[in-house]
Amino acid sequence: MDNTETPVTIIGLGLMGRALARAFLKAGHPTTVWNRTAAKAAELVAEGARVAATVDDALAAGTVTIICLTDYAAVHELLGASERGLAGRTLINLTSGDSAQARAAADWAAHHGAHYLDGAIMAIPPAIGTADAVVLYSGTREVFEAHGSPLEALGTATYLGTDPGLASLYDVAGLAMMWSVLNAWLQGTALVRAAGVDAATFAPFAQRMAAGVAEWLPEQATAVDSGSFATEVAALETHARSMTHLIEESRAAGISTELPELIKSFAARAIAAGHGGEQYAVLIEEFATPSAG
Ligand code: FVH
């Protein structure tokens, strides 16, 4: 069968599910859709999709079924009623969740005789169907290898390994990156705005800072993996003094000091433990320690 002839099913037509369906249609795949609220399928039908009357019909229509619902509870609620129809089916679950939920879903699918791959979409709906849309997959390698070509219609398909929890793990780790960068930018923006500089004026500088720091990551990762944090660039104590400047500047500007205080508290603990002369990445030990309480 030609790649574009692989029939696919999409269950879940929220903003993301509709984008996935459109990408498959654009790539030429016969595409069947099902959604709890049937009206959301209307535009896709006009674009060439077929609507399944029931979830069981939807599962039977595609060589592969993509699931994209709000959360894993919705997946179990919906497909729990179709468990008998899962045997031999191939399910690729792109619903967001954590790694424990993904592993539990893989066990559940295996119990019902389905082939299962978990996934995480690292993109917004308008990017789906372009190379910029990175979609992470983990779980049964054979499922990824058998369906990797149709999955390329959605974006850049990246297989992480046989542990079905890996895609969700990377997803939440990626979100940690995203929110940290945004929070840092918001702190800086609140500071400069207090001095009359608008966000748009500060943004190009902030963008260069974020890109510059990103360049450091491979070297910092080497230090983390080796556990060797010697530095000839900047010691943690030097960073900590600058953190104090950020706290004082924030206080003087009348803005929140919570984020800089939190950052400083990590550094203070590491310095108290004797790591003040080492490089910033030594803080990994603070991040890797469970929080009290
Ligand atoms: N939208 C985005 O930018 C992000 C990008 C990163 C990945 N996420 C995840 O993708 C999943 C779906 O997101 P969505 O934006 O399409 O979300 P919604 O618009 O909320 O659509 C959710 C669909 O789930 C259906 N649904 C919910 N609960 C049930 C249920 N119990 N039984 C059957 N279907 C259910 C819902 O149906 P309806 O409300 O239209 O009837 C929608 O089809 C999500 O995991 C994101 O985190 C998107």
From TrEMBL:
<dbReference type="InterPro" id="IPR051265">
    <property type="entry name" value="HIBADH-related_NP60_sf"/>
</dbReference>
<feature type="domain" description="6-phosphogluconate dehydrogenase NADP-binding">
    <location>
        <begin position="8"/>
        <end position="158"/>
    </location>
</feature>
<dbReference type="InterPro" id="IPR048666">
    <property type="entry name" value="RedAm-like_C"/>
</dbReference>
<comment type="similarity">
    <text>Belongs to the HIBADH-related family.</text>
</comment>
<dbReference type="GO" id="GO:0050661">
    <property type="term" value="F:NADP binding"/>
</dbReference>
<protein>
    <submittedName>
        <fullName>NAD(P)-dependent oxidoreductase</fullName>
    </submittedName>
</protein>
<dbReference type="InterPro" id="IPR015815">
    <property type="entry name" value="HIBADH-related"/>
</dbReference>
<feature type="domain" description="NADPH-dependent reductive aminase-like C-terminal">
    <location>
        <begin position="163"/>
        <end position="287"/>
    </location>
</feature>
<dbReference type="InterPro" id="IPR036291">
    <property type="entry name" value="NAD(P)-bd_dom_sf"/>
</dbReference>
<dbReference type="InterPro" id="IPR008927">
    <property type="entry name" value="6-PGluconate_DH-like_C_sf"/>
</dbReference>
<dbReference type="Pfam" id="PF03446">
    <property type="entry name" value="NAD_binding_2"/>
</dbReference>
<dbReference type="InterPro" id="IPR006115">
    <property type="entry name" value="6PGDH_NADP-bd"/>
</dbReference>
<dbReference type="GO" id="GO:0016491">
    <property type="term" value="F:oxidoreductase activity"/>
</dbReference>
<dbReference type="Pfam" id="PF21761">
    <property type="entry name" value="RedAm-like_C"/>
</dbReference>
<dbReference type="InterPro" id="IPR013328">
    <property type="entry name" value="6PGD_dom2"/>
</dbReference>
<keyword id="KW-0560">Oxidoreductase</keyword>
